[in-house]
Specification:
Pfam families: DNA_pol3_delta2 (PF13177). Keywords: Nucleotidyltransferase, Transferase. One of its GO terms (molecular function) is 3'-5' exonuclease activity. This is DNA polymerase III subunit delta. This protein is α/β, with parallel strands linked by helices and about 325 residues long. It has two domains: about 5-170, P-loop containing nucleotide triphosphate hydrolases (Rossmann fold), CATH 3.40.50; about 205-325, Zinc Finger, Delta Prime, domain 3 (Up-down Bundle). It has helices at about 5-10, 10-25, 40-55, 65-75, 90-100, 125-135, 155-160, 170-180, 185-195, 200-205, 210-225, 230-240, 245-265, 280-290, 290-310, 315-325; strands at about 30-35, 80-85, 110-115, 140-145, 160-165. A five-stranded parallel β-sheet has the order 2-3-4-1-5, with helices on both faces. Helix 5 links the parallel strand 2 (about 80-85) and strand 3 (about 110-115). Helix 1 runs antiparallel to helix 2 (about 10-25), helix 5 (about 90-100) runs parallel beside helix 6 and helix 9 crosses helix 10 (about 200-205). The longest helix is centred in the C-terminal third of the chain and has 22 residues, at about 245-265. It is elongated, with a radius of gyration of 25 Å. The termini are far apart. The mean pLDDT is about 90.
Length: about 325
């Protein structure tokens, strides 16, 4: 359950603008929610729809308990229509069907709301049909178009919508939201350090492949600390079989970078910045193996390895060279 205060914490400007729509009784006929995946566009759209339909709301805040609010939560409100891509695109027929639905009188009230997800994926024909719809808006109709790439949409559609820009979430806020979603504190810190996309972070938390990434990074560090002569063996027999694609190797290197950043944070007593919060003893041991300067050098080596992966250098060669550098 989201409230307007919670949404304002995630997206202060967009949240305040929509709340003001209710306070001033000036709800636009069309909105364009533009921002990266995981920035709260769908949650904001649902909350806005609830505020429109809820008959027991206080100010802009829906009650969350009435029939309208519950039906929106369950996806069964007859006057709220969702359109999502059918395959790779949103097709003309989907917009035609929506227009037909809107010729009928509302079942619960005269209000009707439609939400178009990934609106930038409309075909040209679908976009033109929607444009006709937007050119003759009903006073009782509200549209919300959600997109990651608003600049690829027709200018004529953009000009008929009130644009709301959704900003990337800051790491601390992502971490707090992840903990609220039941993610452990240690995982939340790691995930928030890797992405400011809340949806992606939650998906990574459920991904068994990613869970093993953290383990492999810790195992690599232990090998480098205690059995450096076995480093190349570990890379070829443990690391590479898990990281089969270049994007996966990049993710592993990202986590490895966080480890060496933590070593430096340990030296400068920045405990609040440490990501591997459950590995404090290992971090203490790491400071005996790597000085602050050598840890900084290791960060440089990992960054260079990431660049080589992007340049299509053979992954095995990149990882073997990196291992030798980290052993110095």
């Amino acid at each position: 359950m989201q409230t307007w205060e919670e949404m304002k914490e995630l997206q202060p400007l967009a949240g305040q603008m929509l709340m003001n729509s209710f306070k001033k009784d000036r709800i636009s006929h069309a909105y364009l929610f533009q921002g990266n995946r995981g920035t709260g566009k769908k949650d904001m759209a649902l909350l806005f729809a609830k505020s429109i339909f809820c008959k027991e709301r206080e100010g802009a805040e829906p009650c969350q308990h009435c029939r309208d609010c519950k039906r929106i939560d369950s996806g069964n409100h007859p006057d709220l229509h969702w359109i999502e891509p059918d395959g790779q695109s949103i097709k003309k027929e989907q917009i035609l069907h929506l227009q037909k639905e809107f010729t009928y009188t509302g079942l619960e009230s005269n209000r009707k709301v439609y939400i178009i997800v990934d609106a930038d994926r409309m075909t040209i024909n679908a976009s033109n049909r929607l444009l006709k719809f937007l050119e003759e808006p009903s006073q009782q109709t509200t549209a919300m178009l959600l997109t990651e790439s608003g600049q690829t949409m027709l200018d004529t559609i953009r000009s008929r919508c009130q644009l709301l820009a959704f900003q990337p979430l800051n790491a601390k806020r992502v971490e707090e939201k992840l903990v609220q979603e039941g993610v452990s504190e240690s995982n939340a810190k790691l995930l928030a350090s890797l992405t400011n996309n809340l949806t992606e972070a939650l998906e990574m938390n459920e991904d068994e492949w990613f869970a093993n990434v953290r383990k492999l990074v810790i195992q690599l560090i232990e090998v480098l600390q205690n059995k450096p002569n076995e480093g190349l063996l570990f890379i070829n027999h443990q690391w590479m079989p898990h990281f089969k694609e270049r994007t996966q190797i990049q993710r592993g290197l990202d986590v490895l970078m966080l480890w060496f950043q933590d070593v430096i944070n340990q030296y400068v007593d920045r405990d609040d910045a440490i990501v591997f919060v459950t590995e404090k003893e290992r971090l203490n041991q790491a400071t005996m193996r790597w000085s602050r300067q050598s840890a900084a050098a290791c960060l440089t080596y990992v960054l260079e390895a990431k660049q080589k992966i992007n340049q299509n250098v053979h992954p095995n060669l990149v990882m073997e060279q990196l291992t030798l550098q980290l052993q110095r």
